[in-house]
C-alpha cells in the first residue's frame, strides 16, 4: 500500500536491551539458570546444525552464465549457522501483518497510526514468573500494555539484558540491508557511553513490542505494579526492528517466539502472504539455478 513504511529499507540504529544469563564477556546465555521450572529459554543459534548447514551452493544463470555462491540453510532458530535467516523470514511475515493492521483499522487506531517500538520490563520481584509460568507473564504484559495505550502489536520475549563490560552502559546495536541478498545483517554492537565492544549478559526479563498505540499512564502502572514501560519511539523500518529483536530473543520449545494481541491478534484477520523470493541473476534478471556438475549426473556406479 502506498505510504506504508518499508520493512527492508535503510540501515537503522537503536538502543538495544539485549539480555542474557552468564556474565562472561560476550558469552551467550544458555538455558541453564538459577530459576526453577521447566522449558528454560535460550537464545537463537544455541542448538546443533545439520551436517549440510552452511555448505556452499553454486548458482548459475542459464542465460548469461553468471555465477554466484549461496549456502545451504535449514531455517531453524536454534541452528548456529542459520538462525539469522530464520529471524529474517519471521520478520518478513510479522512486518507484513503489522503493516496490514494500519489499513484495516485506521479508524480505530486514530492518531496512533505510526508503528512504534516499546519495551515492558518485569519487576525483579516476579522475574520467576517469566521463567516458571511464561503464559501468565505474557498475559500480564498484554493487560498492562493495553492499559498503557497499545491497541495492536506483537510481542517478543527477551529473558536477559546486555550491558557494557567496562562501564555498565547500554549497548547500541546497528544493522543494515545487504545489497546482494537484501537481507538484514548486523553491523556492530558497542557501548553508547564508552564505545567499548565488550559486553556482558545479565538477568532482566522483558518484552519488546512493535505495533500501534499512544503511550499513557506509564508512571501510574510502574507505581502500582512495578512494571516499567518505555516508549523507544516511532519505527521507520518495521521488519528491521523485528529482525534485530529476534536475533537475541528467548526461544522456548513448543512455543511461538512472536505473538500478537489487540487488533493484531490472529483471530482478527488473516496474515498477508509473503511474496515468493526469486533468485534472480544480478546481470540479466533471469532466475538462477543450482549448478550441477555433469560428471556427477546419471545413475550411480554399480556395486562391486
Question: What does this protein look like?
Answer:
- The protein has a five-stranded antiparallel beta sheet with strand order 9-4-8-5-10. Strands 1-6-7 form a three-stranded antiparallel beta sheet, covered by helices on one side.
- The protein starts with 11 loop residues before the first strand and ends in a 14-residue tail after the last strand.
- The protein has a domain at 22-27 and 79-274.
- With 304 residues, the chain is α+β, with helices and mostly antiparallel strands.
- It contains six helices and eleven strands.
- It has helices spanning 83-104, 106-109, 127-132, 134-147, 218-225, 238-246, and strands spanning 12-16, 56-60, 67-71, 116-121, 150-164, 171-177, 184-191, 199-213, 228-234, 259-262, 289-290.
- 21% of the residues lie in helices and 26% in strands.
Care to give the gist of this entry?
Helix 1 packs antiparallel against helix 6.
Helix-strand category: alpha+beta
| Largest sheet features | 5 strands, antiparallel
Separation of termini? 63 Å
Strand content: 25-35%
Strand order of the largest sheet: 9-4-8-5-10
The global form is globular
User: Count of helical segments?
Assistant: 6
Overall average pLDDT: 84
Number of β-strand runs: 11
